[in-house]
Design a protein that fits this description.
- The complex is a heterodimer of chains A (305) and B (614).
- By secondary structure, chain A is an alpha+beta fold.
- Chain A contains nine helices and four strands.
- Chain A has helices at residues 15-36, 42-45, 60-70, 98-110, 126-154, 157-185, 191-221, 227-259, 261-299, and strands at residues 47-54, 76-80, 82-90, 116-124.
- Chain A has a four-stranded antiparallel beta sheet.
- Chain A is elongated, with a radius of gyration of 24 Å.
- The two termini of chain A are 37 Å apart.
- Chain B is 57% helix and 16% strand.
- Chain B is built from 21 helices and 18 strands.
- In chain B, strands 6, 7, 8, 9 and 10 form a five-stranded antiparallel beta sheet that branches.
- The longest helix of chain B has 33 residues, at 5-37.
- The chains are: A alpha+beta (305), B alpha+beta (614).
Chain lengths: 305, 614
């Protein structure tokens, strides 16, 4: 069985449209980030978070009233999976686990006839939150830099640049879409999300490398072929693999997104978006940048390929 | 077939090795299931019968992270500032002002609080010696002294916490230092939060307790033994089988075989008493400690122990005889002679005369007077140094100690002496710790996550395999076998390194499968291309593997890099993800490239099977 015979698609031609598309998606995402902000999880905010499961379903409004009485009027309250599971989060800091104790007392007092069990209790001190934020940022920057350097070493400088820009593109697109879809899917930026971003970076560069590898190989065989044509040839040759691999990964992640439960949702969402963005950016960002750069250099008269 | 014998042996060996490492995980699961099906009583006796096996398997199985099995993770920070404040003499208004500023700045800055303090002093041109050490000491010396005290306070906090967690009796606790001033405590399966908080944050209690005279101690233990022998007929006989080499130390009365002896003396069978070697105490092999602990808690045993006697365990085990570790059980007087608050300082050092490690200890006036009386009245008796209910040392009183200056000898090495110093100081200078991070996951959230995570992994894996089978036919079959082996290797390596499986870790496994599939897709697509150019099957396979190699290698290596970076920066669950990702990439390279290739060679050689790539 095969999906594709020999294809001959001119991938690189509509790249100007692709640039516009990328720019629109990224700008829309950034606008959403600026206006609505990102929903940071407890890891990065610091504070106290409790997930409790009541025996009977409860109304969010009632929980809010209970929290108002307990003195946490500004606490964030939402359901977590079902209407019996409630997440309460507040950024207030106190000695030890005082905040969590007060929240629990508040809930016990208000819902005296509807007992609950604590599913999860997290307290993150203010220093730790800041540290985790910093470490996450470092991790993403470090991996992008290391990957860029590796590709520069194994391929050419401009390919390294292309790969890095593609990665930044993917991270921005995903971040933007997370912000846009946060309202519907409840996507928080927490440590798991950072892991998702790093995986996304890994997957995206994986796809880019496969295409670069084919370009490198074809360059040795077809020494005089113009780069645009050569890239198209390479993309067509790897198309079948791209569709199958990325399609499989996409399917796997989609399953995780749908069935993986509340805890896995943010992770899966970031990767579903990341897979699409990563496949797209291998062609229209990573390869396209290398192409634009070579074309520009040629126009100036320098001979680089 | 023969020409690949080395490769086939290698593959078979890897598979066997992986199975070997995974067996304890499987066995643990099985035992767990068996026990869950029994009644509480049956499962307890089953546990006693198979204690050794259960414990071994549990230790070697793949560990589940706190997010999967539920439990608590607490990060404690040692309050260096509080310590600095406590150490200062003649505290006044100016000092309080400086401390306030330092505290303010320390919450924002990364700098060491000691250096911050020094800067504040220098800004005001006040000498630090006004509050610390003696007037002759300069700032450098005092800074050094404070830094030193801070480090020691952290070690002390660490030791206190570790000791308490050990005494608390959680299975597989993890206590480790994080950065300069933090301690991570992980307690799987624990959900009694208030209790744990109390346990970790309470002030350390150091006591000096007199050991009971050997004769009395022996008589009490005899009574325990008889009380147990009277009730024991079914429960403890089975435990005999687990014991083998303790007979050498035990002192059998008359001509009994070790089995008979243990049947007749359930307590002395595992708690070894040797008046010559260890007067007044009993030693218990590490694996029997829980058993003896349970014995001592039994109602009929508690009845025969006099009120003024208490059994206290040694904090650490020691090596006796043939590589077996033993804990010591000390019968002590219940009321302490003295509590540790009277200790002003303690120091581990080498005796200038014979170069042996010793610990010196000073007490305040009131303590010294008491100490002099206690030591005077108990010459040649032993006093146990007990921290939070665990004995760290039980030295013999040589003579009356006036003036509070004591010297403790008989440590095996300086390491041991340092530990004792830490313990003695824990009574004098508590290391103030604060909980700065606490995470607890109830077991039910853990269960739900496991179920959702496992289910989706399973569905994803099966669908991927079906797709490969349909799309690549024989090639797909080979790839599916490789995929299964990849999972086997991944879990095997995880078990071998005693890695921890977390929720993101499961996600890492799914990702690994994607990477493994990609490698096969790259190769197969290449083989198809080569077949189109008219190559023979064998030549196409060779060309396919060779040409796909560079792409697979480069792409896997870059993914591996992100794994390494995650491992470096991440914490807890995220590190679990990085771990499975890194192992998985290595495993997938082996299975998806090496193993499939050998399989294809075997298939092309065989005339029976028609090989194709869809």
């Amino acid at each position: 069985m095969r999906f594709f015979g020999k294809t001959n698609i001119d991938f690189m031609r509509p790249r100007n449209i692709a640039y516009v598309l990328s720019a629109v998606v990224i700008l829309a995402g950034l606008a959403s980030v600026l206006i609505r902000g990102l929903d940071y999880g407890i890891d990065f905010l610091g504070g106290t978070e409790l997930i409790v499961q009541f025996r009977e379903p409860v109304e969010i409004a009632d929980v809010r009233r209970a929290m108002d009485r307990a003195g946490f009027g500004r606490a964030e309250i939402k359901t977590f999976g079902s209407d019996r599971d409630i997440l309460v989060r507040t950024v207030e800091q106190a000695q030890g686990t005082e905040v969590a104790d007060k929240i629990r007392t508040g809930l016990t007092d208000y819902f005296s006839k509807n007992p609950y069990i604590v599913l999860k209790e997290d307290k993150i001190g203010p220093k730790i939150g800041a540290e985790l934020r910093r470490d996450a940022l470092y991790a993403i920057i470090a991996s992008v830099v290391v990957i860029g350097a590796y590709i520069w070493l194994r391929f050419k400088f401009i390919y390294g640049v292309g790969a890095v820009v593609a990665l930044i593109h993917d991270v921005l697109v995903t971040l933007g879409l997370i912000s846009i879809f946060d309202g519907v899917l409840n996507l928080e930026i927490d440590q798991n999300m950072v892991a998702a971003f790093l995986t996304l970076v890994g997957l995206s560069v994986n796809d880019t490398v496969v295409i670069f590898d084919r370009i490198r190989e074809n360059q040795k065989i077809f020494k005089t072929m113009p780069l645009e044509q050569l890239m198209n040839k390479s993309l067509n040759e790897t198309l079948s693999r791209t569709i199958i691999t990325m399609g499989t990964i996409f399917a796997v992640l989609l399953i995780l997104l749908i069935f993986g439960g509340e805890v896995n949702r943010g992770f899966a969402f970031a990767l579903v978006v990341g897979t699409v963005a990563g496949t797209y950016s291998s062609i229209y960002i990573a390869s396209a940048i290398a192409l634009e750069w070579v074309n520009r250099a040629k126009a100036k008269g320098a001979i680089i390929n | 077939m023969r020409k690949y014998s080395f490769k086939i042996t290698l593959i078979a060996a890897s598979v066997l090795l992986a199975l070997y490492f995974l067996y304890p995980t499987y066995r643990d699961y099985q035992l767990h299931k068996e026990m869950a099906a029994m009644s509480a009583e049956d499962s307890l006796s089953f546990y006693e019968q198979n204690e050794q096996e259960i414990r071994d398997n549990r230790q070697k199985r793949i560990k589940l992270g706190l997010d999967l099995q539920g439990g608590m993770r607490v990060v404690l920070e040692v309050h260096v500032l509080k310590l600095i404040e406590d150490l200062a003499k003649n505290r006044d208004e100016a000092f309080a002002q400086i401390m306030k500023e330092v505290r303010d700045e320390a919450s924002r800055s990364e700098e060491s609080p000691v250096l911050l303090l020094r800067r504040k002093f220098e800004q005001r041109q006040i000498r630090m010696s006004r509050y610390y050490l003696t007037l002759r000491d300069d700032n450098d010396r005092i800074t050094g002294y404070l830094e030193d005290e801070a480090t020691k306070a952290i070690d002390r906090g660490m030791e206190i916490v570790r000791n308490r967690v050990d005494q608390y009796g959680v299975s597989e606790p993890n206590v480790q230092k994080l950065g300069g001033t933090r301690i991570i405590v992980e307690l799987p399966g624990v959900s009694r939060e208030a209790e744990v908080r109390q346990l970790l944050q309470g002030t350390a209690l150091l006591e000096f307790k007199l050991l009971k005279e050997p004769e009395i101690a022996y008589r009490v233990m005899e009574a325990i033994d008889q009380a147990l022998a009277a009730v024991t007929d079914t429960t403890d006989t089975a435990s005999v089988a687990a014991l083998t080499d303790t007979t050498k130390i035990a002192t059998p009365e008359g001509d009994m075989t070790p089995e008979e002896f243990r049947k007749k003396h359930p307590f002395f069978g595992i708690a070894i008493v040797n008046p010559q070697q260890f007067p007044g105490e009993a030693v218990v092999a590490e694996e029997n400690r829980e058993k003896v602990r349970r014995m001592l808690e039994r109602e009929e045993v508690r009845r025969v122990i006099p009120n003024d006697i208490q059994f206290v365990w040694s904090a650490k085990s020691r090596l006796l005889g043939e590589g077996q570790r033993y804990y010591t059980l000390y019968p002590v007087k219940s009321t302490p002679e003295l509590t540790g608050g009277v200790i002003t300082t303690a120091r581990a050092t080498l005796d200038p005369v014979d170069n042996l490690p010793i610990v010196t200890m000073e007490m305040n006036g009131e303590g010294a007077r008491e100490w002099s009386r206690i030591t005077g009245a108990n010459i040649n008796k032993r006093i146990a140094i007990v921290l939070d209910n665990a004995v760290f040392s039980a030295p013999v009183v040589r003579g009356k100690i006036p003036g509070g200056h004591s010297q403790i000898e008989g440590m095996d090495n300086l390491e041991e002496a340092r530990l004792l110093e830490i313990v003695l100081k824990a009574g004098a200078l508590p290391a103030p710790v604060e909980i700065i991070e606490q995470r607890s996951v109830g077991p039910s959230l853990g269960e739900d996550s496991i179920r959702a995570g496992l289910l989706s992994s399973l569905v994803a894996t099966v669908l991927t395999m079906i797709f490969m089978l349909v799309y690549y036919r024989t090639g797909g079959t080979v790839a599916t076998v490789a995929l299964l082996l990849c999972i086997l290797f991944l879990l095997g390596v995880l078990a071998a390194f005693q890695g921890t499986l977390t929720l993101p870790g499961i996600a890492g496994i799914i990702l690994t499968l994607a990477v493994a599939v990609d490698a096969n897709v790259l190769i197969y697509e290449r083989i198809r291309e080569e077949l189109l150019t008219g190559k023979t099957l064998r030549a196409a396979i060779d060309a396919g593997y060779d040409k796909a190699w560079s792409a697979i290698f480069d792409s896997n290596l870059t993914t591996f890099f992100s794994g390494v970076i995650l491992w470096q920066f991440g914490s807890g669950p995220v590190q679990g993800f990085a771990l499975t990702l890194m192992i998985g990439i290595a495993a997938s390279m082996f299975s998806a490239i090496f193993i499939t290739r050998v399989m294809f060679y075997l298939l092309t050689d065989s005339s029976k099977i028609k090989l194709n790539f869809g």
